[in-house]
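Help needed: design a sequence for this.
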């Protein structure tokens, strides 16, 4: 079934599915049931999961007023992203060792519990601790993406990754819109309470629709973790892609970490809801995901990565030189489009390196990317405190320039 065909009827989706084929290495092969319905369900699950690590960003002003701890409030996004990086390293490799369907459904349940802990936390330090747990549990999104890549036919892998990543990007961007609205009308704790039933619904959906079985490696958890270092040493494309995407995601995080604070300045005078609405504008970048996937399928992903990094750099030129609301709106579209184009193309390369190790490859790639995000968030807070939006723009642009330089240098060295 192609993506342009209608989704399967519920009755058809509920029929038992044959287990995906595996090769002698234990790698999951294409699944004939991987049609539009399952692809869209996995895209929705990825978005629901990753949204949890971004709810706090447009609500920082509200949280700060509630807690009265400006210095600690700024640590909440960093703690959430660090938790995500830790979860990627410690939890995602399990996908190569055991039943992914059970892992995905179970981790969504843990995500619901972590969201409830954030909502209940009475102090800034406890919110930071609960945010670490929330970030770790939200890595279920990074189980969904490589599973979708494994189930897709090779000639449609880029397109499938692009569609699932579209859902993930929608979760990143629309989370800010939803959180800004809820915080403005109900409160920031209510946003995390709303996340609880949504995560539980995603757990039920994945338990119902995902294939029940898949091949897995005869490898211990400790050996799987040790193999991460071997993959890093043996795969230069993994090192390049991780470094480039870490710098780009750091640049992306700079903007979204400071946006709510920037919009509260007197010449804008806007609050959490306005910061959240920028997520709706950024959804235009979702269009890059399937487009980039198709280009990567046809022509190769390398040039798309360089163009994506260049677009992120251009977005910071716009932010720095065009100080109006219109400049922010245009810049965020360019920023999200560039980031997503590079991300899809890097994933296309990384997932093809060692098929039986897709979850571990994804662990290395995404851990590096979110460490970059946490560095971007922490640096953005420092830049904002010491130089305002001008220094923030220089910092974000420098990170994008580093990513572009790394990609061009790698391409030149291969010639």
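Sure. Designed sequence:
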């Amino acid at each position: 079934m192609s993506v342009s065909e209608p989704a399967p009827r519920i009755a058809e989706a509920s029929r038992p599915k044959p287990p995906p084929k595996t090769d002698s290495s234990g790698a999951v092969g294409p699944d004939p049931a991987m049609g539009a319905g399952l692809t869209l369900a996995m895209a929705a699950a990825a978005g629901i999961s990753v949204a949890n690590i971004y709810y706090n960003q447009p609500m920082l002003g509200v949280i700060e007023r509630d807690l009265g701890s400006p210095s600690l409030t700024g640590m909440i996004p960093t703690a959430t992203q660090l938790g995500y990086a830790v979860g990627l390293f410690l939890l995602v490799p399990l996908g190569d060792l055991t039943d992914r369907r059970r892992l995905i459904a179970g981790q969504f349940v843990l995500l619901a519990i972590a969201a409830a802990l954030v909502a209940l936390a009475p102090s800034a330090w406890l919110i930071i601790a609960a945010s670490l747990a929330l970030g770790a549990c939200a890595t279920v999104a990074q189980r969904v993406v490589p599973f979708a890549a494994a189930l897709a036919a090779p000639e449609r892998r880029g397109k499938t990754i692009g569609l699932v990543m579209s859902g993930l990007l929608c979760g990143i961007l629309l989370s800010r819109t939803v959180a800004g609205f809820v915080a403005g009308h109900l409160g920031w704790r209510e946003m995390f309470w709303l996340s609880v039933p949504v995560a539980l619904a995603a757990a039920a959906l994945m338990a119902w629709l995902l294939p029940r079985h898949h091949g897995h490696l005869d490898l211990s958890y400790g050996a799987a973790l040790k193999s991460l270092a071997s993959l890093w040493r043996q795969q230069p494309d993994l090192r390049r892609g991780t470094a480039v995407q870490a710098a780009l995601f750091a640049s992306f995080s700079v903007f979204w970490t400071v946006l709510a604070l920037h919009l509260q300045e007197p010449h804008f005078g806007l609050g959490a809801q306005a910061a959240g609405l920028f997520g709706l504008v950024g959804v235009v970048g979702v269009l890059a995901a399937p487009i980039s996937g198709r280009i990567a399928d046809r022509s190769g992903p390398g040039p798309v990565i360089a163009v994506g990094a260049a677009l992120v750099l251009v977005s910071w030129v716009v932010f720095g030189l065009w100080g109006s609301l219109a400049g922010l709106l245009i810049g965020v579209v360019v920023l999200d489009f560039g980031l997503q184009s590079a991300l899809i193309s890097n994933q296309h390369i990384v997932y093809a390196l060692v098929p039986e190790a897709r979850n571990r490859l994804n662990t290395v790639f995404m851990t590096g990317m979110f460490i970059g995000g946490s560095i971007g968030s922490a640096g953005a807070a420092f830049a904002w405190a010491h130089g305002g939006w001008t220094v923030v723009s220089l910092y974000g642009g420098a990170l994008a320039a580093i990513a572009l330089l790394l990609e061009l240098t790698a391409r030149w060295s291969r010639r």
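Residues 358-413 form the longest helix (56 residues).
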